[in-house]
Amino acid sequence: MSEEKMLLEYMEKHNEAFLDMLKEAVKLESPTEGSKTDLEKCRDYFERIFSSIGFNCHVVPSNDSRYGDHLLMEFGEGDEQILFVGHYDTVYEKGTFGSLWEQEGTKISGPGAFDMKGGDVQVYMVIKALKELELLPENKKIVFFLSSDEEAGSPTSHKHYQELAKKSKASFVMEPTFGDCTAGLTTGRYSRGNYTFVAEGSPAHSGQEPEKAKSGLKELAEQAIYLESLTDLEKGVTIACTCLNSGNAGWPTVPGKGELTIDARFSSEKIAEKYDSLFQNLEPFNAGVKITTNGGIEKPTFDEKDPAHKKLYELAKEVGKRFDMNMKGYVGRAGTDGNFTASVGCPTLDGMGMSGDFAHQPGKEYINTEDIAVRGAFVARTVLEVLRMEEELQSEIE
Ligand SMILES: [Zn+2]
């Protein structure tokens, strides 16, 4: 029997077990900034299931009271390792999703089922299958870092991802795929910048002498329109204003001060650098108003054009064909920890997890149960292919 068939049969046979485990993980609600007890319960659950198949698990403290701790899980010994990337936090405050596990036909909704506890359980099933089918090569190490703060931008975990990725042959990011697509993958992600512009002019009485004001509010209103006009979808630039704060509705005053925050996304490092320097030196429209910039690029670009990532994607496409899947790579504007693993030159493939839709939408986020087995078998076979490769994937970029 071919390895593909063995893996697919294994996954199909274990589909119910997969759903039982996912149900338990989803019901342990774990909002990013939720209670420590809740976060710990969810983390403990993952520690328990991964330990049961032979992973050595270590708690890695986040050292930040806002977030839970991370889990570093390692399987096997060897100089060469591959890295799985996952997070157990979700965007939903406890009790805000609605029903925690709702099945309708082939769709199951639940907080974080899609983004991304489904992908986390998938890592378990992939390694369990490879182990039980005796397909795992000797002398290879599998590392799974499960973080607690991804939805907050990975403030305390990104350094761990970068360190681990530097030592890894490839990174597989188990985030859900783009939309409800059986053969979808994510092959690149925009960088993300977050900027706050502080305007300082001078206030004046809004009735008596408004003409004397150097209005911070007017300045920022003009900047908001200008900055959003820099969006260029073809070039790969999006700029969106997310907060404008100036003045007081109860006062007869033209405000001198104000703050404007933007979210900026770029398809390449080169473009990001160009816009970053523009934002760091933003020129005011109005004389007498000064602008100071806070913030910068928070997530580096995961550039799909990088040869190392391309090679991994090509390999995944070949594996996909063996499962009759015509793999399609998407570039996401939203970032993940794949941005961090890619930033240190580690060949990265993202969106390896569940198919489904409506991430971050309470009551709606769902997974497609029909795709679990085939996507699991595909991930297992892709991982095997990388573990068996003699040459380095990243040799082309060094
Ligand atoms: Zn996610």
UniProtKB/TrEMBL annotation:
Q: Which UniProt keywords apply?
A: Hydrolase, Metal-binding, Zinc
Signal peptide coordinates:
none
Per its UniProt record, the required cofactor names are:
Zn(2+)
- Work out whether the entry's keyword set contains Metal-binding: yes
Peptidase M20 dimerisation domain span: 188-279
Superkingdom: Bacteria
State the Pfam families in the record.
M20_dimer, Peptidase_M20
Which Gene3D superfamilies does this one have? 3.30.70.360, Zn peptidases (3.40.630.10)
Q: Please report the name of this protein according to its UniProt entry.
A: M20/M25/M40 family metallo-hydrolase
Q: Which organism is it from?
A: Oceanobacillus locisalsi
Provide the taxonomic classification.
Bacteria, Bacillati, Bacillota, Bacilli, Bacillales
